[in-house]
Design a protein that fits this description.
The complex is a heterodimer of chains A (387) and B (290). With 387 residues, chain A is an alpha+beta fold. Chain A is built from 13 helices and 18 strands. In chain A, strand 10 and strand 11 form a beta hairpin. The longest helix of chain A has 17 residues. The chains are: A alpha+beta (387), B alpha/beta (290).
Chain lengths: 387, 290
């Protein structure tokens, strides 16, 4: 899960990383008071949305007086921020972080992630701070250093030295850098992060290292040992349908097309979406109903699919292994009757008791269209939405 | 012949008395798998299904009964401990079905695997099956039929889709392995491709990948340089948006990396026969075998 900058900074503080003073604000008045209490020559007003690239999109501004901070905050709240990472719809700003200004001498890039290939912790460093790492990686990969750390051995001083030399920093700052890198490493493990990105990491005029921005993603699977993860969820940042689906235990992701998909299994669900596209239509969603596709679950899934007004037809693709197809068919029929389903539904059921299932669908009195294979079903549903 | 398991394989079930563990143990028994023992802490001394001895620990089970493989149905909170327990007890094959293990726990498991002699499959996977001989996992047994094609996959139901086609097309299967949908897994495609290349019964391999990570690319390189047997590939997630986890924790395109098109390109360049959609996997294999 992604979290906000202010939450990321809370986590860093908890793990003894020094950050600038800042105050979270939800209104112009709060911003006014925050600026007064910070009492620095300038403050920086930063929109809090789950996306990078805020600066270029107008989501980071400087103010010299409390009045100015108030005005800027009022303009920023409620505005839709479209950055390189938000997608074309952008994200609405609901809160801002007011932070003391800093005297920036140098900007660096430092991040910690998990290297899937080697199952190690990876530090990524670059002296090109403030820029997007994907861009640097594309245009000048030689400006990026990756240092892999085997977690069973832990981080060693030579790892830190490699980064320090690569970044071309001056010797007097070595101890501070060493300490900082070690704190990031332990914070990453302690909080079960999947990504920790400091961009930029700045060196101030006084020669101090300060993480100016912080972006953190947490490992959802580790939430059982970090109850606070739950408090970090910001519903304003989530698609309401996705949140609703999650609350009933369905794995749903909204997309742009008009074919609603209901599939068991994540891989098959993706493959179903791809096949719909191959036949000239576009999937409205990813939806994995999981192993127990009974009538109650199917009904819940139908309701989620139908809440998306773009959906013009539904494609149900179930491979019955342990779950029996006739049970699924029964569930689909009951659910369709209960909610008075009007949209065309193409169903493809394969596996255990598939024949029995076809019979049930045909004699149900409902207007189901049967797909004989995944491709056949995808082709039929695509034809319907394109006609 | 087959790889890793056959009708002689003696299997331990960790978490045998739990809901999932007991249900699937019975299904595996029905298939003909030799389930030799189970482990559930504090239930040692009892019998599962009136016949299978239950022990408190893996070490205890191993000192009483010969164990070739273990399957883990332990909840995510304790699963990494169960895997490490199996590694330290030197069980040759470890199959972990559990979904939802934290990535950092899996990183520790991988450290424990380095230098051990155990092979690990999973987590977050359907398991492994050698058709008509031994099933260690949660896949539907009846779709499998002894034959000549091996299946390797990061998915569950999509694997069944492929197996069903292979069986219906009369090709049949040797061993099928679901390697797991997490970012860090016990063994990658590469480990098993090498085994299948050396298995005289396997004549071709179906490789089902998905978005995220670089396993497919690494497998492709091996196929090009070392494999004589044809490999048919499919990648799920061509329409997946960037930055979203598509059900599996490992199925995510991040920073523009791990896309389906990137993987398909590398696979094509490395002599892997691409199935354009999942309905033509068997068909593509028949052509590749000619």
């Amino acid at each position: 899960m992604d979290i906000h900058e202010y939450q990321a900074k809370e986590l860093l503080t908890k793990n003894n990383v020094k950050i600038l003073h800042s105050i979270l604000c939800h209104s112009g008045d709060e911003a006014y008071n925050a600026t007064v209490s910070l009492n620095t020559p300038v403050v920086v007003i930063k929109a809090q949305v789950h996306a990078g690239g805020r600066g270029k999109a107008g989501g980071v501004k400087i103010a010299k007086t409390p009045e100015e901070a108030k005005n800027i905050t009022e303009q920023m709240l409620g505005m839709t921020l479209v950055t390189a990472q938000t997608g074309k719809d952008g994200k609405v700003v609901h809160k801002v972080l007011i932070e003391e200004g800093a005297d920036i001498k140098k900007e660096l890039y430092l991040s910690v992630t998990i290297d899937r290939k080697t199952s190690n912790i990876a530090f990524v460093a670059s002296a090109e701070g403030g820029m997007e790492i994907e861009e640097i990686s594309k245009n000048s990969p030689e400006k990026i250093l990756t240092v892999l750390i085997n977690p069973s051995n832990g981080i060693k001083s030579y790892h830190v030295l490699k980064m320090f030399l690569f970044l071309g920093l001056d010797k007097p700052i070595y101890n501070e850098f060493n300490n900082f890198v070690n704190l990031l490493y332990s914070a990453f493990l302690a909080e079960d992060m999947s990504m920790l990105e400091i961009n930029p990491l700045i060196i101030t005029g006084n020669g101090n290292l300060i993480p100016l921005d912080a972006k953190i993603a947490l490992d959802d699977n580790a939430s059982f040992r970090h109850p606070y993860y739950n408090d970090f969820i910001d519903e304003d940042e989530e698609d309401p349908l996705e949140t609703k689906a999650k609350s009933v235990g369905l794995n749903y992701i909204r997309l742009d097309g008009n074919v609603g998909c209901m599939v068991n299994g994540a891989g098959l669900a993706m493959a179903t979406m791809d096949t719909i596209k191959e036949f000239g239509a576009a999937p409205a969603n990813f939806l994995d109903v999981g192993g127990t596709a009974d009538s109650k679950r199917v009904e819940t899934a139908f309701n989620i699919l139908l809440s998306d007004k773009n959906v013009k037809a539904i494609f149900i693709n179930i491979f019955g292994g342990i779950v029996k197809c006739d049970m699924v068919a029964d569930g689909v029929i009951t659910a369709a009757k209960n909610i008075g389903l009007k949209l065309p539904v193409v169903i493809r059921l394969e596996g255990t008791n598939a024949d029995k299932a076809s019979e049930l669908l045909e004699t149900s009195g409902l207007n189901f269209i049967v797909g004989n294979s995944l491709a056949d079903g995808a082709q039929k549903v695509s034809k319907i939405v394109n006609s | 012949m087959s790889i890793l398991i056959n009708k002689e394989t003696s299997v331990l079930v960790q978490g045998i008395t739990g809901k999932e563990g007991s249900f699937h143990t019975l299904k595996c028994l029905e298939y003909g798998t030799k389930i030799a023992a189970g482990v559930t802490p504090f239930k040692g001394g009892s019998l599962f299904n009136d016949s299978i001895p239950v022990f408190n620990t893996v070490a205890e089970a191993k000192s009483n009964i010969k164990i070739d493989a273990t399957v883990i149905f332990v909840p995510a909170v304790f699963a990494s401990s169960s895997v490490i327990e199996a590694i330290e007890s030197e069980i040759p094959l470890i199959v972990c079905i559990t979904e939802g293990i934290p990535t950092i726990d899996m990183m520790n498991v991988k450290s424990a695997l380095r230098g051990s002699s155990s092979v690990m499959i999973g987590p977050n996977c359907p398991g492994i099956i050698t058709a008509n001989e031994c099933k260690i996992g949660i896949m539907p047994g009846f779709i499998h039929k002894k034959g000549k094609i091996a299946v390797l996959s990061r998915s569950g139901t999509l694997t069944y889709e492929a197996v069903n086609q292979l069986t219906k097309a009369g090709l049949g299967e040797t061993t099928c392995i679901g390697i797991g949908g997490d970012p860090i897994i016990g063994s990658s495609f590469l480990t098993f491709l090498k085994m299948f290349e050396g298995d005289p019964e396997t004549e071709g391999v179906v490789l089902i990948g998905e978005i995220g990570g670089t396993q497919e690319e690494e497998a492709s390189e091996y196929v090009k340089n070392y494999m004589k047997k044809p490999v048919v590939g499919f990648i799920a997630g061509k329409t997946a948006p960037e930055g979203k986890r598509m059900g599996h924790a490992g199925a995510i395109i991040s920073g523009g990396k791990g896309t389906a098109s990137e993987k398909l390109k590398v696979m094509k360049e490395n002599r892997i026969h691409i199935a354009e959609n999942p309905s033509v996997i068997a068909e593509t294999m028949i052509k590749a075998l000619r």
